[in-house]
Amino acid sequence: MLIQNHFNYTKINRETINGKRHYCLPDGSKVASVTTILDKTKSEESKAALQAWRNRVGHAKAQEITTEAAGTGTVMHKMLEEYCLGKPKLPGTNVVQQTAYPMAQQIIQNGLVHLDECWGVEIPIYFPGLYAGTTDGAGVWKKEPAIFDFKQTNKPKKREYIDDYFCQLAAYAAAHNEVHGTKIKTGVILMCSRACEYQEFVLEGAEFQKYTDEWWNRVEAYYKNN
Q1: Is 44 helix (H, G, I), strand (E, B) or coil?
Q2: How far apart are the first and last CA of the chain?
Q3: Residues 89-131: pLDDT tens digits?
Q4: Which of 84, 127, 168, 213 is spaced 20 to 30 A from 58 at the CA atom?
Q5: Is the residue at 5 inside a domain?
Q6: pTM tops 0.85, yes or no
Q7: How many domains are there within the chain?
Q8: Is 213 within a domain?
Q9: In the chain, count of helices (H) and strands (E)?
Q10: Which of 131, 178, 179, 162 is nearest to 35 (CA)?
């Protein structure tokens, strides 16, 4: 697969301000990242569930699991990015690469096969004056313009537990539409567990609008308190 360069994606730099990730936009303004907004507006229930998990497994073990997952996810993302760029590679010999490679293959064989056109990967994206971030990719998914994100997980996820992932898709779609004049109303999460169990979550229709509304509510809540 080769990238179809329909849009001029401008690189935006990141910096940390008071411990929060911000992006420096082309006009010189600085805005919060999508992940910062989502993190700072989590529900009390979500915060309690995360803390309960840390208490249950122990803080040292929780940090170990989080760090290992992040490393595997980074390598898997890189493999998928290279595939979209038309230069897939074989895995290396270290444990992380050997774990990430079959996960990436599951996403390629079950998910990216439905990507009709790829506009870019690791796309810097922003909504002027409000937020910015980096989406894993954008393109045409089953004949519909879409934002897509790659996710790794230690075990399969239930749809009702990934609200923040859906808000993230809605945020990136709104920003892409605003800056590039697109009409994206579909988001896709391509996920694989460490046991190579593939999952696909498609956000569209009324559900897409629901999470778009939720995203804007959280943007408003963030700026009221920051």
Answers
A1: helix
A2: 42
A3: 777 778 888 899 999 999 999 999 999 999 999 999 999 999 9
A4: 168
A5: no
A6: yes
A7: 1
A8: yes
A9: 6, 8
A10: 131
